[in-house]
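Subject: for your reference before the review

Hello V.,

The reviewers asked for a structural picture of the protein, and I figured it would be easier to keep everything in one thread rather than splitting it across files. Below is the amino acid sequence we used in the manuscript, unchanged from the supplementary table.
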Amino acid sequence: MVRPEPGDRPRRGPGRPPEDAQPDAREALLDAAARLFAHRGFGEVSLRRIAQEAGVSAAMVHYYFGDKAGLHQAMLERAFDRVIARVREAIAADPPAGESPLAGVLQVLVQTVSAEPWIPPLLVREVLSEGGRLRERFIRDYASVMAELLPGLLQREVDAGHFRDDLDPRLAFLSFMGMAVFPFVARPVVERVLGVDYDDAFVRRLAAHSERLFLEGVRA
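And here is what came back from the structure prediction:
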């Protein structure tokens, strides 16, 4: 779970539900916040604007999340905690004979950034950009976890004789993440210069291509 940043204010617990409470209001608010935070930044989006985008009253934000920081934290937890859990499952799974667990991990990453198109712009704006609000939290709670899980898996594949014995797991980890995530970070440029449409068929082809290219480069 994401831990609050040192400067985050304590959140109020939920009170009585507003009269216009709806069963799916919480998810609608998380979806709206993800879109708006990714494209405008945390500081430029008001709770009123998020509620308007979600089609609910601003009171619903306070009921479910306490304040904007609480909504932001819940949005990250929903997306990235789920990714970490699915990556762990893919690593622990017993792959078909001759296949590497990395194939399943790559599918998880590609499917996530494809299904959650707000993630790449949020990473650029709030993590990679200088002064990004989420950089320290992202490094602490997510990037550091992935930097343990995947190089560890790569080293086990080397030790088992499946991958080349001269493979540097840390460098291979960087290449792997670049293949999985960069095409979606660069999507606005790729769509124009290559004339591709990021539909389901293209995403499947991209995932298969990246999997084949990476694994053929590291296999013993």
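For the response letter, the relevant points are probably these. Confidence is low (pLDDT under 50) at residues 1-13. The first helix runs from residue 25 to 40.

Happy to draft the paragraph if you're swamped.

O.
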